[in-house]
Design brief:
The complex is a heterodimer of chains A (482) and B (232). With 482 residues, chain A is α+β, with helices and mostly antiparallel strands. Chain A is 56% helix and 16% strand. In chain A, strands 3-4-11-6-8-7 form a six-stranded mixed β-barrel. The longest helix of chain A is centred in the C-terminal third of the chain and has 44 residues. With 232 residues, chain B is of the alpha/beta class. Chain B has a single domain, classed as 3-Layer(aba) Sandwich (Rossmann fold). Helix content of chain B is 32%, strand content 28%. Chain B has a six-stranded mixed β-sheet with strand order 6-7-8-3-9-10, with helices on both faces. Chain B has a four-stranded antiparallel β-sheet with strand order 2-1-4-5, covered by helices on one side. In chain B, helix 3 packs across helix 4, helix 3 packs parallel to helix 5 and helix 5 runs parallel beside helix 6. The longest helix of chain B is centred in the last third of the chain and has 16 residues. Classes of the chains: A alpha+beta (482), B alpha/beta (232).
């Protein structure tokens, strides 16, 4: 008997008992459809993440942070450090993440936004290459700005129409000057009165001197802080919008709505401190308190982004940067973790599918055992015609295999249809909620093959016992006249 | 074919049934042997043992000098596939297969190509006068036609020995005559035929030699092993 004979006999028998075959195959179809739909969801999400990683070039992106703790000898993530990091083998580009709050005026519209300073070379990386309109700024000191779609959406403008428009960026910076000015100007009458109250001849006494000095110094510092926090200098500049970037805000890879060239941004970012008092204390701690306005010397950054050479393993770069005393975060390493999660997730879904398939396989066993009872005389006849036990076993295994193959193939189609339906529902919900449409399901070749083999192998295993039982049928008994 | 001290015992509950008990038979090539006896005499068991469907408890069967008891299951299956043709009282046709499909089945196990199978089956059915019945299912055929399909199935692989177990048991007089004449004709063409029947009269008329069995033993042997089947 060749495989065509086996196929012909098997399909013939299944066709003869249509309802029973249909019900048995349906069990496999449901199990495989569930298996495909569930794993398709896992595969879809994995593909989505991989695509996003690829699209943003995250596999070749690494973030560097200052070390934890406040040791005086801890490495500072400043320009010197960036220079050193950029020389690490495998680092194509290193640039700081330098963001600050701004007031932006687009003609008659004023917006409170966050801005980011970026070197022009950063646009060579995938992360910043998602240009919707216009061009990147030409050089680091250009009076040009890039905005994201967030701005065009807020202003109700198209990406093309915002190109060439003026944007006035202003920032209020706290500084030592503003603190001192407050003490000397706002409080000078009160201070004058206090000075008059001090008995200078009594300053020779330790107790009096300590009380006066500590008391007055604390008072003065309180006024200094008040001036520092509330009486800031205004720094203002005008830029021309040269390009619009695609909106993105995902985890550690944020793109601020306004991006200005690194050098042109210095007067905003280093003229003073933000409104967070911690900046002041950090500056005091780092010894950068008295850095002159407009100069970046001694400035430290909270984060530096590295663009890596894809041919150099990220672990090597990470080790080298950490050896300089900094912390690193690698997206490639994170992806490994995500892949591991998906592996276990898929395993879990696969086990659920397997349970469904085992249930279906009991139906196959039942069908095949029934078939043996009904076809006992046929088995006896085949043996009398020259079939041996192996032929009979193969015949029945083939029949189980046909049930499995038909069930698996149909199950894959049904599973795919389920994912299409679920995808349609998900997309509709995303659209209604104003989210970007995403395809949450995928049916890669490996999944189709796995599902098919899964259905086939489980069916063959289910057919093994009935096939062995059929092979053992005594032909004399089977052919005995009743 | 030689059966030497052939025994086939069954256990049925606490007792032992001696279906075939120390039987010695020699069947010559081209012979038409009739095995007769009442029900339970062991004639069908004897037939099954000689056809290689059953295994003896002791003793042996030799076919052309080869002992069937020494063969593996696979070799025994090959013996049935190539050298043995069988017909049964109940015809044993597969009801959902056509006459042609039933005859073709006999060639599944002897390395015949699908085209050759079809050609041989058609030829055999035509020879037996069933050319216009090939696409009919067994349920659409008369008893005689069904048995002729069964004979075609047994002969299509060109066997050396034809075993017939009560081939006319379910047939009327006319069909019985046709089938026995067919077997006689085949025997005259050189085919060895071993037929089991309870009809001694019919067996005496058609077979060359007659062996009567009783309680598993040969109790009477008439005729000549060298003579072919009788002529009616």
């Amino acid at each position: 008997m060749n495989w065509r004979d086996l196929l012909s006999i098997s399909t013939g028998n299944l066709w003869r008992l249509k309802l029973r075959s249909f019900l048995t195959i349906s069990g496999v179809v449901i199990a495989i459809a569930a298996f495909v739909a569930m794993l398709s969801f896992g595969a879809g999400n994995q593909r989505l993440i991989t695509e996003q990683f690829n699209e943003l070039g995250l596999f070749t992106t690494m973030q560097v942070y200052p070390p934890r703790g406040d040791s005086a000898r801890a490495a500072v993530l400043d320009d010197d450090a960036i220079e050193a990091i950029s020389k690490v083998p495998g680092v194509n580009l290193a640039y700081p993440f330098n963001s600050f709050k701004i007031s932006a005026n687009f003609e008659d519209t004023a917006l409170e936004l966050e801005a980011q300073a970026l070197p022009a070379t950063a646009f060579n990386t995938k992360l910043y290459s998602r240009l919707v309109a216009g061009t990147f700024f030409s050089h680091d000191s250009a009076r040009q700005a890039m905005v994201t779609e967030e701005i065009t959406d807020t202003l109700g403008l198209s990406a093309d129409s915002i190109i060439g428009r003026q944007i006035v960026i202003s920032i209020q910076v706290a500084s030592i000057d503003s603190g001192l000015a407050y003490i000397l100007q706002g409080e000078r009458d009160r201070l004058k009165g206090r000075l008059e109250e001090i008995r200078f001849d009594s300053l020779v006494h330790d107790d009096y001197r300590k009380r006066v000095f500590y008391g007055e110094m604390n008072e003065a510092f309180k006024y200094f802080l008040n001036g520092y926090m509330h009486h800031r200098n205004l720094v203002c500049d005008t830029f021309t919008v040269c390009g619009v970037l695609k909106k993105m805000r995902r985890g550690r890879m944020q793109i601020k709505p306004v991006i200005i060239p690194a050098f042109a941004a210095r007067r905003f970012s280093v003229s003073g401190f933000g409104d967070d008092p911690a900046d002041l204390f950090n500056a005091l701690k780092n010894g950068t308190f008295f850095v002159p306005s407009g100069d970046s010397i001694g400035r430290s950054y909270p984060q530096v982004t590295l663009n890596l050479d894809p041919h150099v393993p990220y672990e090597t770069v990470s080790d080298s940067v950490e050896a300089l005393g900094f912390r690193t975060f690698s997206f490639a390493a994170q992806f490994k973790e995500i892949s591991r999660f998906f592996f276990y997730f898929d395993m879990f879904l696969g086990i659920i599918g397997l349970i469904a398939l085992i249930t279906a396989s009991l139906g196959i066993v039942n069908t095949m055992v029934m078939s043996i009872i009904e076809r006992k005389r046929e088995i006896g006849l085949l043996k009398s015609l020259g079939a041996d036990e192996r032929d009979i076993r193969i015949l029945f295994l083939f029949e189980s295999g046909v049930i499995g193959a038909l069930g698996a193939a149909t199950g894959i189609i049904f599973g795919w249809l389920i994912t299409r339906l679920a995808s349609l529902v998900a997309r509709t919900i995303m659209t209604r909620q104003g989210l970007d449409e995403m395809e949450l399901f995928a049916l890669p070749g490996w999944l189709v093959l796995t599902a098919f083999l899964f259905g086939l192998i489980v069916s063959l295993l289910a057919g093994f016992y009935p096939a062995s039982r059929a092979a053992r049928v005594d032909p004399v008994e089977a052919l005995r006249n009743e | 074919m030689k059966a030497i001290d052939l025994c086939r015992y069954y256990r049925r509950g606490p007792s032992e049934v001696r279906a075939v008990d120390r039987v010695n038979i020699v069947v010559e090539k081209g012979e038409f042997l009739g095995l007769v006896g009442s029900s339970g005499s062991g004639k069908s068991t004897m037939l099954n043992l000689m056809a290689g469907l059953d295994t003896p408890t002791s003793g042996s069967i030799e076919v052309e000098g080869v002992s069937l008891t020494a063969l593996t299951r696979r070799e025994l299956a090959a013996y049935r596939a190539h050298k043995v043709g069988m017909i049964f009282q109940a015809f044993n046709l597969i009801p959902h297969r056509t006459a042609l499909g039933n005859v073709e089945m006999a060639l599944y196990f002897n390395d015949t190509s699908p085209n050759e199978r079809r050609r041989k089956a058609v030829e055999m059915l035509e020879q037996l006068g069933l050319g216009d019945r090939m696409d009919h299912h067994p349920a659409d055929l008369s008893g005689g036609e069904q048995q002729r399909v069964a004979v075609a199935r047994a002969l299509v692989k060109n066997p050396e020995i034809l075993f017939a177990d009560e081939p006319t048991g379910n047939l009327d007089h006319e069909n019985t005559r046709q089938i026995t004449e067919l077997l006689t004709r085949l025997n005259r063409q050189g085919l060895t035929v071993i037929m089991v029947t309870h009809d001694r009269e019919m067996a005496r008329n058609y077979t060359g030699r007659l062996i009567r069995m009783h309680y598993g033993q040969v109790v009477e042997e008439t005729g000549n092993s060298t003579s072919p089947g009788g002529v009616v």
